[in-house]
Amino acid sequence: MIRLESDYLEGAHPLIIEHLTETNMEQTPGYGTDVHCQNASNLIRSACRAPEADVHFLVGGTQTNAVVITSVLRPHQGVICAETGHINVHETGAIEARGHKVLPLPSQDGKLSAAAVRACYDAHYSDNDREHIVQPGMVYISHPTENGTTYTAKELEELSCLCRELSLPLYLDGARLSYGLAAPVNDLSLEMIARLCDIFYIGGTKTGALFGEALVITSPSLKKDFRYLIKQQGAMLAKGRLLGIQFETLFTDELYIQIARHAVNLAMDIKKTFQEKGIALYYDSCTNQQFPVLNKQQIKVLAETYSFSHWKDLPDDKTVIRLCTSWATDPEYVRQLCRDIREKL
Amino acid sequence: MIRLESDYLEGAHPLIIEHLTETNMEQTPGYGTDVHCQNASNLIRSACRAPEADVHFLVGGTQTNAVVITSVLRPHQGVICAETGHINVHETGAIEARGHKVLPLPSQDGKLSAAAVRACYDAHYSDNDREHIVQPGMVYISHPTENGTTYTAKELEELSCLCRELSLPLYLDGARLSYGLAAPVNDLSLEMIARLCDIFYIGGTKTGALFGEALVITSPSLKKDFRYLIKQQGAMLAKGRLLGIQFETLFTDELYIQIARHAVNLAMDIKKTFQEKGIALYYDSCTNQQFPVLNKQQIKVLAETYSFSHWKDLPDDKTVIRLCTSWATDPEYVRQLCRDIREKL
Amino acid sequence: MIRLESDYLEGAHPLIIEHLTETNMEQTPGYGTDVHCQNASNLIRSACRAPEADVHFLVGGTQTNAVVITSVLRPHQGVICAETGHINVHETGAIEARGHKVLPLPSQDGKLSAAAVRACYDAHYSDNDREHIVQPGMVYISHPTENGTTYTAKELEELSCLCRELSLPLYLDGARLSYGLAAPVNDLSLEMIARLCDIFYIGGTKTGALFGEALVITSPSLKKDFRYLIKQQGAMLAKGRLLGIQFETLFTDELYIQIARHAVNLAMDIKKTFQEKGIALYYDSCTNQQFPVLNKQQIKVLAETYSFSHWKDLPDDKTVIRLCTSWATDPEYVRQLCRDIREKL
Amino acid sequence: MIRLESDYLEGAHPLIIEHLTETNMEQTPGYGTDVHCQNASNLIRSACRAPEADVHFLVGGTQTNAVVITSVLRPHQGVICAETGHINVHETGAIEARGHKVLPLPSQDGKLSAAAVRACYDAHYSDNDREHIVQPGMVYISHPTENGTTYTAKELEELSCLCRELSLPLYLDGARLSYGLAAPVNDLSLEMIARLCDIFYIGGTKTGALFGEALVITSPSLKKDFRYLIKQQGAMLAKGRLLGIQFETLFTDELYIQIARHAVNLAMDIKKTFQEKGIALYYDSCTNQQFPVLNKQQIKVLAETYSFSHWKDLPDDKTVIRLCTSWATDPEYVRQLCRDIREKL
């Protein structure tokens, strides 16, 4: 069985295992106050050209989202996101469990437009009974989105402008950020993201690390007392250096972007093969996730050799599946998959 | 100005004022442990033919919804409701503030069907990743709905059957319950509601009281320690007897239903007049709220003499407004309104 | 049975009943936006000589404390109070239910000293692991305290100075504020309280109203969006005018302070009688609550004619009880009680 | 500098690093559903002789405590613990942030006695106003305690009996459980702990793992839907197999207990040396943490060569410090320390 159902099937990039092994008997203070965390923070600040940013390392994405949103919002505020946003659908209500309503907006491709955010904001403030309604307090986007789509520089710029005009902090969930930066269509950089967002995270779990997310806070007003919230939310790793070591590795010699390019190139091969075969892709993803629309027979054939995620049933008896590549995907397996798409589907 | 924008414009039915005055210097223990609360509870149990039910008196609707839902759900559960449900749109995220996601289902008329609830339940339990998704934990309906529509006995029976099959407690928000019971189309009774719901409240604020809602818990498993939750949520009135006295009055000589009939009869006059004039009603309400669809000119004319709520803008430059009658509405005002509809719109 | 166990045994001062009756059929908009609430707010601002203050009316004390503390604190912060503070012991964990730890400090008399607050603050900030500990975020005091004791002007001035130095908002729970202002030892005024506290409430429930507390926010930074929080916490009364009318009455012709003087004078008669009889008072209260220390035989005798609260068992088989007077206490009953103390105990 | 300030200074036991490396390129499903987690669960069930127990793997202790307590309690309930309990003092109010009051009881040594728990329970239920007070809903103990002390079998048996009589689930925080099992005074076994507690966790972070805690639920009524709560609280590791692999290693060939014996033997050498030197130990700890009471001069001398934690200032100008050994402590360093205690202090 060749497994392609997610991008967190293996452990970590071998260099990370190597560094964890080398440093294993070092003695360091706990909770992220060690020298590896400091180095990694500096490397990230440097990559983002954001020398004033605060960098924190957390273990996972749901946790990071919960800590950030809890820290930013006042109790009567909610967070605007696309209806497909991870916080709205796949975190068991973690945001609501911390007291905040998620304010989902309709979205075809998983992205939020500046126009949609403005309409939501205006609807709130034009309501005479607005005190009876949750107040929009921040904006959450994911990049790439849960559907593999990406924001252009122009789109992110517009969103950022609007958010600053409306005093809504803009938060970018970068669980798969490297795959977005490696997309052939990409015109964004870490530097632009750091300039346009108030707070964002660079995902490690899905891009080469055993686990871990690097949170970058660029907005000065969001920095205060953040470590208290990390601890309170159960997100402060005792041996914090494990996170530091992993991100030191990922941000040395551009490993972070190199391994993403590997994954995206393979995903583009898969995409092209489906397209040439006349099989539709449900979202136009230029990143490591691909979403072909298959019929039952095609799914049966594919399932003999490959594992994948069931994404969504369509009305006409077709089904959207998800195939993921990652830093760890063997190119030989992808060649075999492409052959099978061409010959067996 | 003749005010028709809501059903809580005046104080209380004169008999309630009279009884509050008469009993004013009585000395009673606090927090709902007095003899008036006991009497009122007995009267309500009797009206519901539910001798085993627990009855609690709370001050307002948002508060009652918050206490009930907080008490019933475990942390990972959410509450299913129609997308127009009061808890979803007009309580400033009170349910989320207590940790729970509201799970809104699409609804044209403000009602939930058994089929829609079953589909939501099945979708959850058929998902392999369901632990990443909020679990449906109870069902909230309002009767009459926020749109003035009402459940038939058959519809409520189906919903109740399903909820028991799926072990989802069924909660009915009866902020305007009396107006539903007084509707010409009504085939429900308090007894049926008590039999079919696990927990429900009989609204006082909008139906003759200064304030107050009577919560009835029929399901034995939902009764335990409920008063702790009332206190914790800031919903336990020190001079609880004020609630007891008001509900004693409302449940003596059927005052509760009589004053609702007064309101509904007047609302039916308004409805009929709009219909005869060829003006559409956005919802088919047989209760004390009416929702005519007007153009700008009609609204301007009406606003010279009457106050009403702005409900919703429609795409074609029309607007839905809300007119309410209540126990306190002067029939002469309604006659004048009907005349003006006929002659001026 | 002459009831003296609390100060919320009766309904409301007759003038309040009168005004509620007179205004009963007035039509007003809801949720505290009516003219009575505006008038009452102006009267309170005037009494406090705080023309810029925001005034909000809520239904009860637990609710008011919960809304205020929830609004002021960030998630990682707690509220400092005396260990006997109402929020620490008698609100079913309402503060914790909204996410915040109560930080209780030892206190003999129910008061907090500036020195104790400073020590608590310093202990936090001198701890290297402070991010693992709840951060002090505000200070809660009650005046009079739950034990009937009161702050002097000098004590409140010191506390206020310190709180401003440390950027800790100072919140005063004035559930029985009128009885404090009427105490023979009192050297505080509403004006001083408004100047020294950032936020405080003037209790109605225990001092002549059917229910209701008037919250005064003097600190500009605490005002923003406060009504959203009132609504979310289920504390916004639909017929808000009921609160406005009651506080209009209490703040006209100094009724608020007159009725408190009545109660305190009677309490002082009781206190003096116990003292003359050689019966100890557990706290030195100059307000409407008195706490004599009695033996079992004395309690038995008293219980034949009077109801009172059991407050605390002492090691030597003695018991502290609480006797309360109020605006409604009949002087004849107090004369009889004093006679019985002298002759029967 | 020889570091002894905590027991989480290094990475992981070399066998764990070895197994993580070996398995690195295995492909497994996520979120703890892999074969390593299954194996580790079986090994733990076996070690506990609890074939019916549910085992879950979480990342850290604060997180585990928060998930467990959130899952067990209803909203109006609190958790009884010793005043020194980790949840009360060192988790930034994580329990309160999830809505629950911590109910701390005085304790000299960090342990809870059955008598103290009963007194707390009885005080609650004998109070007429108990609905105004947080209800005790479960009992939290740590073993070893934060002070290094341990429960005897008899003490745990008594506590367990009482908790079952009172229907209070008993939860044991075993962050350092292995060090307790390895204590010379120990008469408990994993089997007894599994039989006497309703839910407990076996710490990995401080006992040889990179991170991770194994939660064991023996009480059937506490098992339902637990994974939803893990996810919601941000405690579900995407690559769950990392936890499985680590606990497989720890529970093979008794590694878990062997590495603890190493640490405790060294700690006993330190303890004995202090005692022989006439230096008091603040707590009588037979586990890997030791708490000598030193004067300023002694601290200065020790600090030249060793790092340690500052624990507590005593009134007489003395200070309690904490020294920890661990699975990783070099015996040669302890020999040097003992020499220095004898010769330099």
What is the H/E order of chain A? EHHEHEHHEHEHEHHEEHHHEEHEEEH
Q: Whole-number radius of gyration of chain A?
A: 20 Å
**N- to C-terminal separation of chain A?**
18 Å
What is the multimeric organization of the chains shown?
A: homotetramer
Helix content estimate of chain A: 40-55%
Spans of chain A of at least 5 consecutive residues whose pLDDT stays below 50 are none
Largest inter-chain contact set: A-D, 52 and 52 residues
- Class by helix and strand content of chain A? alpha/beta
Biggest sheet character of chain A? 7 strands, mixed
The strands making up the biggest β-sheet of chain A line up spatially as 2-8-7-6-5-3-4
> What value does the average pLDDT of chain A take?
97
Total DSSP helices of chain A: 14
- The count of DSSP E runs of length 2 or more, i.e. the number of strands of chain A, is 13
Shape of chain A: globular
Strand fraction of chain A: 15-25%
